[in-house]
C-alpha cells in the first residue's frame, strides 16, 4: 500500500475518535442537541461510522468512498458544535472563543478529507 502518511494519520484519528464514542459515551451524549431523537443510537452510529470509515481510509480501493463518508459524518455532527456554543451545559465550561474556533476547524477537517476523494 502506497498511501501518504497523512492519510494514515487521518485514519488513526477517526478510529480513535470512534472508539471513544464507546469508551466515554457520556461526553458525546452531552453534546448531541436535545432536538435530535435517540441520542444513544446517534452516538453509537457516529462512533461506528468513524471507526469503519477510518479503517476503510487505509485501503486504496476504498479510500475515496471513505473520504466522502467522513465528509458526510463531519457535516452530520456539525450541529453538535453549534449546540456546544449555544448551550452552557454542553460546553464543558470551555470559553466561547474556543467553541467558536471549533466551527472553522470542522471545515478544515472536511477539506482534509476532500483531498482523498479525487
TrEMBL record:
List the keywords (alphabetical): Membrane, Transmembrane, Transmembrane helix
UniProt keyword NAD present: no
Membrane-spanning intervals of the chain: 6-29, 41-59, 65-85, 97-114
Can the keyword Membrane be found in this entry's annotation? yes
Protein name stated in the entry:
DoxX family protein
Query: Upper lineage ranks?
Result: Bacteria, Pseudomonadati, Bacteroidota, Flavobacteriia, Flavobacteriales
Amino acid at each position: 500500500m502506497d498511501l501518504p502518511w497523512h492519510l494514515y494519520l487521518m485514519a488513526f484519528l477517526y478510529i480513535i475518535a470512534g472508539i471513544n464514542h464507546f469508551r466515554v459515551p457520556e461526553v458525546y451524549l452531552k453534546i448531541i442537541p436535545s432536538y435530535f431523537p435517540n441520542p444513544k443510537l446517534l452516538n453509537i452510529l457516529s462512533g461506528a461510522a468513524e471507526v469503519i470509515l477510518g479503517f476503510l481510509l487505509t485501503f486504496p480501493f476504498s479510500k475515496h468512498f471513505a473520504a466522502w463518508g467522513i465528509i458526510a459524518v463531519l457535516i452530520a455532527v456539525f450541529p453538535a458544535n453549534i449546540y456546544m456554543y449555544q448551550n452552557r451545559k454542553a460546553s464543558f465550561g470551555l470559553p466561547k472563543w474556543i467553541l467558536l474556533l471549533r466551527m472553522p476547524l470542522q471545515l478544515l477537517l472536511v477539506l482534509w478529507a476532500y483531498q482523498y476523494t479525487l
